[in-house]
Amino acid sequence: MSRIRSIALLISLALSCALFLLMAGAASFADEPPVSTAQGLEAWQQVYSVLTHPRCINCHTATHYPQQGDDRHRHFANVVRGPGNTGVPGLNCASCHQKANADSTGVPGGNGWHLAPLSMKWQDENDQPLSSVMVCRSLKDRSKNHNLDGPGLLKHHEEEPLVHWAWNPGRRPDGSIRTLPPLTHEEFVAATKRWVEAGMPCPTGK
Amino acid sequence: MATYRLNVNGRQREVTTDPSTPLLWVLRDELKMTGTKYGCGISACGACTVHLDGVATRSCVVPVSMIDDRPIVTIEGIGADPVGRAVQNAWIDKDVVQCGYCQSGQIMSAVALLKNTSNPTDVNIEESMGGNLCRCATYVRIREAIKSAAKQVK
Amino acid sequence: MTSHSKTLSLNRRTFLRVSSVAAGGLVVSLYFDRSVRGQEGQPQPQSQPPQKVYPPDAFIRITSDGNIVIQVNRLEFGQGVHTALPMVLADELDAEWSHVVAELAPASDVYKDPLFGIQMVGGSGSIAHSFQQYRELGAKTRAMLVAAAASKWNVSPAQCRTEASVVFGPGAQKASYAELASDAARQPVPQKVQLKNPSEFRLIGKPVRRLDSKPKCNGSTKFGLDLDLPGMKVAVVAHPPVFGGKVKSFDDKEARAIDGVRDVFQIPVNVGGTGVAVVADKFWPAKQARDLLKIEWDLSGVQAADTSELLTHYRQLATTTGNVAVTRGDEKALEKIPTTNRIVADFEFPYLAHAPMEPLNTTVRFDGDRAETWAGSQFQTFDQMAIAEVLGLTPERVTFHTEMAGGGFGRRAVTDSHIQREAAVIAKRMRGTPVKLIWTREDDVQGGYYRPMHVHRVEVGVGPDGLPAAWRHVVVGQSILAGTPFASFLIKNGVDGTAVEGAADAPYVIPNFHVSVHHPTVNVPVLWWRSVGHTHTAFVMETLVDELATRAKMDPITYRRKLLKPDSHKLRRTLDLLETKTANWRLPRGRAKGIACHECFDTGVACAVDVSIENKRPKIYRATVAVDCGMAVNPLTIESQFQAGLGFGLIQLVSGGAITLKNGRVEQRNFDGYTPPYIIDAPVDVDVHIVPSTDAPTGCGEPPVPVISPAVVNALAKLTGKRYRTLPLVNI
């Protein structure tokens, strides 16, 4: 009789452990239901809306030059990409852009100001933004994105100083503040998170 | 107002000024060094080019508060550098200047190019000098002078 | 009379003479000597240059250590006069060139342009007008030095010779100019003097390097903007956003709180407007304070010019005949030519800012009974008079220093002297304190005084030989001279010659030829811009002529030879030389040759360019230029003017080369919006060939500018098959 009770005890212990583990696992998503593909795609569209905003896309060009302004015109003074994405000797990004915004003179700044590499271009060579599908694929492509996985991308969006800059872009020479992306940084990070948790789905089509 | 200790052409200089003052105006109005020029104030023309820690920098847009201890070299001091001297001599030999107002900046940019690229191609020259405006358009002789200086520097 | 009052009365007479000459017979620019054909038969006003005896030492100072200091009677702003005129004088003087020091002369009667009677630079006239003058100065001074030596040695001057600042006697006698200088100054100034035979020139005609290179390369040249005086203050002015607007009210509380701000007050500005001046210890606080001003503007009663409205209006005007500049042959000839043999071409040109590299500035100190001023001025006489007027002084009480200028292109020659007037008004209030007025680049780009906007409509009837048989040309554009002292005698029959020069007097044989012009009144101040009317007329003429050549299946040079007047010697010579120098051009696919020729300011120019299209922009690999400017005084300077002048002219083509207005406000602010050519836009190589000549020298400052735009566009037309008649080029 005691043997049956021991076995029953063991089984109930195992079951409670399993249940506990199950509940513990569920507790990390305790307030959030699992992210569906549809929700992930919707989150992606939000991320895409930020990536293609001028504060971000102006440095993710497919050409040998950056852009500037909300109308995304070619950066003045013929500044060019250069072999290391930091300009050329005599005309580096750092020739004007310092570690922080210079509001008194209207030049934006951030740590290590540079162009995103061509592998991270989000435009075509006619300066038109690439489609949502293409940017999504490009973002996930570890051969192009410095080998970042989902959590890596999330961390990049959360912590990278030049990403932060987009939400503190400083004043133009005329004193006006540069326009901000359509989401706050927190919303952007949250959308990225949802997208990653959905398995980084990309829209279909072109 | 704040006080800054700046390293200008190898000398320690102290200035007291508004932190937002661009380095250009610190050089010109505080230190009375007028070789570095005001052409536009928005870094579009390069007349204000100095070297900041070895990097060609447009001083009209860099507030003095961001300089820290990075050494500054201006047109008044570039002649102490052999590449600087070669460029200045080439500029004189090729009779580059017309009004001359942009040439401090042109020379500082050209020196930055040549210190980095000893045998620049036409494309190198166009790219590195591409943001230096000359309203007299002395560009043909600027190219010639850079090529000539490159030979001298070897 | 005391000598003091005698001096005053002499100066007053000179002052009056200047004004009456200005009002009655002064010719402002050499091109007016070539009468616009419509006025043929009317005698040209013969303006006799006032008889002046120049005291040589007003131009030359020989110092005890042997330096020969030569005063240059006009502004150096890049064109090379600081070297060229001293060269001329030094050659006749037999001065040792390495001893020569050039200075920019202050404002004074003796430094007036011998032809125009005012101290000025413009119209490409520096060499053309002062060549003879400086030769004589050099020769007279030499004669006086020789006379002094001869007297000392008891020999005759004919027995002496000079070389490298030394007089040599018949025996072993020799004396340096420095040693002889004070004796020479006591010699009578010879009335007549023997000039050198050109074969004796040692400097003239040689490629002599500029005297001002070294200091411009080591940062030591002081431009007007670099001036620093004890106790000096800096002023900036907030100008109305629409020309002629006025301050209704302003709040300067925040502005005055900036450390270093001394005063803030309203002042009159140009074209009847008012603005707000900020005076501070230095530039940066002045600028910061100005940015903090809260100004309410009264813009009532001033026209709000708008580019698109103006274009509509101008296009409409261009379809009607304006004030006739020239007419010959049969006015109805065009209608007699079948429409299949007619071309109708409409051209549009925007406003252009000069935007010299050194922003505009002037320093004035007012001391109550006199004043002192420093400026890189192209118009010392006018500017001095204006400052005097504002301060209630006579001009000779205003000591006027001419500073080295960072470019000008015409922008520093303004008959209303508006910069000087602003500075004087501020200096008056800050009595005793030197005030440096600085216009920021934004002030400059938005401040007006542009090359006017133009529309041309040309109807050409092509004859059976492929040459134009009839030509009807309407030009629309503001008059530059209207409202200036030159208007009363230089605008004839409602035609401002500066709007039609290069078209009305075109060197082409066109039997039935009719050019007329409309001068709308627009609330935008306008000004001569390097080569003035030729900037747009040459484009029209040379692109149309090229189009006609293509139509006639003729080589463009051959076509022009057929069409040119027989006596267009300079253009014929340059075309011949150009043809020789470009005969071996073999251009690969994707590159085309374009040519253009134009004569202005008495200098003939022919230009060929080798062009491709790269990144949607014209890329100019090479330009070859042939020039006939008479005797070449300094071929190195001439080469420089053409190599660079072509690049300057390209602002008409680059996409950022336009000033536009919307609702009265200039839309561009700085070089980010008004973008001149950078190195990538300029030709890579330019070879310049000067036609050998012994004719009197003519100018090279402006002649490079008109030819480059049509030459490049003629090449583009070959590449794309398109015609480009609206500038700047936006879609190639």
Instruction: Report the principal-axis shape of chain B.
Output: globular
Radius of gyration of chain B (CA) equals: 15 Å
The largest sheet of chain B, given as strand count, sense and whether it forms a barrel, is:
3 strands, antiparallel
Q: Strands of the biggest beta sheet of chain A: in what spatial order?
A: 1-2
Cα(first) to Cα(last) distance of chain B is 46 Å
Give the neighbour order of strands across the main sheet of chain B.
4-3-5
Question: What characterizes the major β-sheet of chain A?
Answer: 2 strands, antiparallel
Beta-strand segment tally of chain A: 4
Q: Uncertain segments of chain B of ≥5 residues (pLDDT<50)?
A: none
Number of helices of chain A: 7
Topology:
The complex is a heterotrimer of chains A (about 210), B (about 150) and C (about 725).
Chain A: H1 2-28, H2 37-51, H3 54-57, E1 67-68, E2 73-74, E3 87-88, E4 91-92, H4 132-140, H5 150-159, H6 161-165, H7 185-197
Antiparallel strand pairs in A: 1-2, 3-4
Chain B: E1 2-8, E2 11-17, H1 23-30, E3 49-52, E4 55-58, E5 72-73, H2 82-93, H3 103-116, H4 122-128, H5 139-153
Antiparallel strand pairs in B: 1-2, 3-4, 3-5
Chain C: H1 3-24, E1 60-62, E2 68-72, H2 81-93, E3 100-104, H3 126-153, E4 161-163, E5 166-168, E6 174-176, H4 177-185, H5 213-217, E7 233-238, E8 246-251, H6 253-256, E9 261-268, E10 274-280, H7 283-292, E11 294-298, H8 307-317, E12 323-328, E13 342-349, E14 361-366, E15 371-375, H9 380-391, E16 398-402, H10 418-429, E17 435-438, H11 441-446, E18 454-462, E19 468-477, H12 487-490, E20 491-492, E21 495-496, H13 497-500, E22 512-518, H14 534-551, H15 556-563, H16 569-581, E23 592-600, E24 603-614, E25 617-628, H17 635-649, E26 661-662, E27 665-666, E28 685-690, H18 704-720
Parallel strand pairs in C: 2-3, 7-17, 15-16, 19-22, 25-28
Antiparallel strand pairs in C: 1-2, 4-5, 5-6, 7-10, 8-11, 9-10, 12-22, 13-18, 14-15, 14-17, 18-19, 20-21, 23-24, 24-25, 26-27
Helix pairs in contact in C: 2-3, 3-4, 9-10, 14-18, 17-18
